[in-house]
Amino acid sequence: MSLLLRAARPTDAGTAGEILHGFAEETAWMPRLHSQVEAIAFCGTMIDRGWVTVAELEGRVAGFLARDGEEICGLYLARAARRRGIGARLLARAKAECPRLVLRSFEANASARRFYRREGFVEAGRRAGAENDENLPDIAYVWYKEAPSHDQRPGSV
């Protein structure tokens, strides 16, 4: 498996948007709020802001991680790229660049929740869903490179 992690280029917006939109389309519990064109535009905005790292597998974008500082805004993989360690590699790169990472995962996304726990993230809070566009309950997770001091414990996400 030839895997390359690199900063996303503007020309990656189409593939990243297709991956993002594809996840929503194939996920039964996910409301359909945005078109593929909107997903591509959204990914283009994140790429323009310098937030996106892509995973290129055999020369094709297979997934991406979007991060704004310490906040992981999204980690998505094409269906064929899942369960191959690619998400863990993208996450490892983010961990190498930040002493603390935070993210939110939908409560309904059991596989993502297992993945983040396996990667060392701990639950830091829950919300009922009124705060996100999808109106779905979500869970905040936090990861620290080093064990937090008493005043940095989860709950401050």
TrEMBL record:
Keywords: Acyltransferase, Transferase
GO molecular function: acyltransferase activity, transferring groups other than amino-acyl groups
Protein name: L-amino acid N-acyltransferase YncA
Top-level taxon of origin: Bacteria
Organism classification: Bacteria, Pseudomonadati, Pseudomonadota, Alphaproteobacteria, Rhodobacterales
InterPro entries: Acyl_CoA_acyltransferase, GNAT_dom
Domain N-acetyltransferase residue range list: 3-148
Pfam families: Acetyltransf_7 (PF13508)
Native species: Cribrihabitans marinus
